[in-house]
């Protein structure tokens, strides 16, 4: 069974916010109704693009999306780790993304957030420990089997999960911004019908404090010895999940969605490495009794990532 072809992936319907929609209503649509909101390109998102690509190019060199072809694997993974750190620590980039969120979904005084995370997904062929023979690389793009991913220690990158399985708050919303045009093959897949329905999963084994000590963000692609030891909570019977849907975005466009949505990255064989940014945010008032939160039908993770979230200096 192949992750990339085991189900027909349809196009995800994205919602738009009408002018004048209040932050409370916008978060309600995301958290209570499970809507996945499309944000168009804006002046602020163009600044995000400019700054992010500046960092990425400084680390990877010219044509970063093709760096996987010219760099040896350890060197490529080193660049991934370095770029993630630079973007994680860039306060200006962080503030631009916070501006986008606070313009529509959050209050500046109430927002708690995790700094921006760069995601880097090269074509699956370049992730294998041993490069494919030239004749194997040629021709039509072949789906990769789950067993091949497992042998290469790559399954955690492509698991189907809710971010709440990682002890992220039920009130959390995520923004995911495309750093270049993406389509259904190299965006990622959602399973919207499971937003309010349980799936079998192993989140009960996840403890945030243990995970932070063993793995932490940024080690997953750069240190496989550690990542193999760690638990990446996921849906257990992936083949039983129905109707995945992926999406298309132009560069600088974004989606906002509940962290409780079931989703996962699919291995792709597009020519260019996928680069994207995402950030997680929670509104403080949603954490109060009776506050907005997504339904929890199956998440049994322990601990809370909220302890590491930041407040905006206002
Ligand atoms: Fe995720």
Our estimate of the beta-strand percent is 5-15%
Estimate the helix proportion, in percent.
25-40%
Radius of gyration: 19 Å
The largest sheet is: 6 strands, antiparallel
* Helix and strand element order: EHEHHHHEHHEEHHEEEEE
- For the record, what CATH class applies? Mainly Beta
Number of domains: 1
- Could you say which small molecules are bound to this protein? fe (ii) ion
Summarize the structure.
The protein has nine helices and ten strands.
Defining key terms:
314 residues, alpha+beta, Jelly Rolls, six-stranded antiparallel beta sheet, binds fe (ii) ion
Describe this structure in words.
By secondary structure, this protein is of the alpha+beta class. Helix content is 27%, strand content 14%. The chain has a 6-stranded antiparallel β-sheet with strand order 2-7-4-9-3-10. Strands 1-6 form a two-stranded parallel sheet. It is globular. The model is unreliable at 220-228 (pLDDT under 50). Bound molecules: fe (ii) ion. Fe (ii) ion is lined by residues 161, 163, 263.
């Amino acid at each position: 069974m192949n992750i990339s072809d085991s189900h027909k992936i349809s196009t995800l319907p994205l919602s738009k916010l009408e002018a004048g929609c209040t932050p409370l209503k916008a978060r309600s649509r995301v958290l209570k109704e499970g809507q996945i909101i499309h944000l168009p390109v804006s002046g602020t998102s163009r600044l995000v693009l400019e700054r992010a690509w500046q960092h990425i190019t400084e680390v990877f060199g010219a044509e970063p999306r093709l760096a996987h072809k010219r760099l040896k694997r350890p060197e490529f993974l080193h660049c991934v780790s370095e770029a993630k750190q630079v973007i994680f620590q860039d306060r200006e980039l962080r503030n631009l993304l916070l501006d986008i969120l606070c313009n529509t979904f959050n209050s500046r005084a109430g927002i708690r957030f995790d700094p921006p995370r760069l995601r880097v997904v090269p074509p699956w062929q370049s992730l294998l420990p041993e490069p494919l023979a030239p004749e194997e690389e040629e021709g039509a793009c072949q789906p990769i089997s789950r067993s091949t991913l497992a042998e290469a220690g790559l399954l955690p990158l492509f698991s189907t999960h809710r971010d709440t399985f990682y002890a992220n708050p039920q009130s959390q919303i995520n923004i995911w911004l495309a750093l270049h045009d993406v389509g259904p093959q190299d965006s990622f897949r959602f399973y919207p019908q499971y937003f309010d329905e349980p799936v079998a999963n192993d989140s009960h084994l996840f403890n945030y404090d243990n995970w932070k000590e063993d793995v932490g963000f940024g080690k997953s692609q750069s240190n496989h010895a550690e990542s193999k030891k760690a638990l990446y909570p996921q849906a257990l019977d992936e083949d039983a999940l129905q109707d995945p849907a992926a999406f298309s975005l132009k560069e600088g466009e974004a989606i906002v969605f509940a962290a409780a949505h079931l989703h996962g990255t699919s291995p792709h064989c597009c020519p260019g490495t996928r680069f994207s940014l995402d950030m997680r945010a929670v509104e403080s008032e949603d954490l109060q009794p009776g506050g907005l939160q997504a339904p929890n039908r199956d998440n049994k993770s322990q601990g809370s990532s909220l302890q590491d979230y930041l407040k905006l200096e206002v």
